[in-house]
Design a protein that fits this description.
Blueprint lengths: L2 H27 L2 E7 L4 E7 L6 H18 L5 E4 L3
Parallel strand pairs: 2-3
Antiparallel strand pairs: 1-2
Helix pairs in contact: 1-2
């Protein structure tokens, strides 16, 4: 994927995360979804900040719920790579 295409996809994905994925997670479990970019193997590098820190459920939420939502909204993305700072 060329640099311009990747940048456009990252911008689109970041907008989708803010508008479609983040609000329900914030409402249901007080979690903030953080989008860090797209990996070389077309996965969305993402984190989840929760009130209870980086609990094991945060990784499961990213791998299950967020992956399903992202793949439905942006089929080019192959999955989610959890990333916690």
């Amino acid at each position: 994927m060329e640099t311009n295409e990747k940048k456009a996809l990252e911008e689109r994905l970041e907008r989708l995360v803010k508008e479609k994925i983040a609000p329900p997670l914030d409402e249901k479990c007080s979690a903030t979804v953080v989008f860090y970019g797209i990996t070389e193997d077309m996965k969305a590098k993402m984190g989840l900040k929760t009130s209870c820190g980086n609990c094991p459920r945060a990784k499961a939420t990213l791998l299950q719920c967020v992956t399903v939502a992202i793949r439905a909204l942006e089929p080019e993305i192959k999955g989610v790579e959890p990333f916690f700072k």
